From TrEMBL:
Keywords in alphabetical order: Coiled coil, DNA-binding
Natural source organism: Microbispora oryzae
Record-given protein name: MerR family transcriptional regulator
Xref: PANTHER family: HTH-TYPE TRANSCRIPTIONAL REGULATOR ADHR, REDOX-CYCLING DRUG-SENSING TRANSCRIPTIONAL ACTIVATOR SOXR
PROSITE patterns assigned to the protein according to its UniProt record, in alphabetical order: HTH_MERR_2
Coiled-coil residue spans: 106-133
CDD domains the record matches: HTH_YyaN
HTH merR-type domain residues: 25-94
Length: 156
């Protein structure tokens, strides 16, 4: 997440912010710009319970807190690493429960972490194939014009 709305970090451009009950709040547009989520996605995440009920100002307009933005940073991480929405919702429910359930949260994240490790391993395997193909094409470029690979092999 860009640093300007991350709690404790301020950008040099410092967006114009309002305050509700002494809490700094951000417009949906500001949050969309900072998180990379579209306005539709922010509304969708709120509707399905992936984002807690967003505060409203006196005019009824949605206003996000720094905690909301920080949570959206976690959602962005989980989404970008392929966690299904249902699993993100499960994690959110655990985070927002009043009872202590840290072990359950760890279990959800560890399960996801294993999947991410598997994805990374598969990407490494695919990257090896790409590197071999690059090496092959570099070898093709090294063959002088008019000389076939077969001619080259017989000369060695």
């Amino acid at each position: 997440m860009p640093p300007s709305l991350v709690p404790g970090v301020r950008s040099t451009s410092s967006p114009r912010c309002d305050r509700i009950d002494g809490v700094t709040v951000y417009t949906p547009g500001q949050v969309a710009e900072e998180t990379g989520f579209s306005l539709d996605t922010l509304r969708y995440y709120e509707r399905i319970g992936l984002l807690r009920r967003v505060r409203r100002n006196a005019a009824g307009q949605r206003r996000f807190t720094e905690d909301d933005v920080s949570w959206l940073g976690m959602v962005r991480c989980l989404r970008d690493t392929g966690m299904p929405i249902a699993e993100m919702r499960r994690f959110a429910e655990l985070v927002w429960q009043d009872e202590p359930n840290v072990k359950d949260r760890i279990a959800v994240l560890e399960r996801h972490d294993r999947k991410v490790e598997e994805q990374i391993a598969e990407l490494r395997r695919q990257q090896d194939v790409i590197k071999r193909k690059i090496a092959y094409y570099r070898g093709v470029l090294a063959i002088p014009d008019g000389v076939t690979a077969q001619d080259r092999e017989s000369a060695s």
